[in-house]
Amino acid sequence: MEKKMGGDVTTIKVSNLSLGASERDIKEFFSFSGDIVYVEMMSDTERSQIAYVTFKDVQGADTVVLLLVISLKVEVALVIFENVCAAVHCNAVL
Predict the structure, then answer these.
(1) DSSP 28
(2) 8 Å CB contact between 53 and 41
């Protein structure tokens, strides 16, 4: 996912979307972040597509980016924990 820098950006670019993803799917997934004004979808590769999601205000786009960063940090932390646990042969439950 990509967000243009500078100014009050309200559009995010979502790449590597499944060809099965629809505009409705995108709207449902991102609507928790704010009011969506417009979704534009286009082909990217033979196996994926791109969507540009425009929110009513900058808070919507910022919320998506913030949640993604938090999600990635949690995933990285879990991978590190799993690797350390495997190295010392512990039986922790995640």
Answers:
(1) H
(2) no
Could you report the per-residue pLDDT of 34-65, keeping only the tens digit for each?
Answer: 999 999 999 999 999 999 999 999 888 888 88
pTM higher than 0.85, yes or no? no
Q: State residue 80's pLDDT score.
A: 57
> Is there a contact between 54 and 26 (Cβ–Cβ < 8 Å)?
no
**Angle at CA 18, nearest 5°, toward 16 and 19?**
120
What does R_g of the chain's alpha carbons equal in angstroms? 17
What kind of architecture, by CATH, is found in domain 2-88? 2-Layer Sandwich (3.30)
- Token readout for 76 is 């990285």
The domain spans of the chain are 2-88
CB contact burial 23-37 (16+ within 10 A = b; e otherwise): eeebeeebeebbebe
- Higher per-residue confidence, 72 vs 51: 51
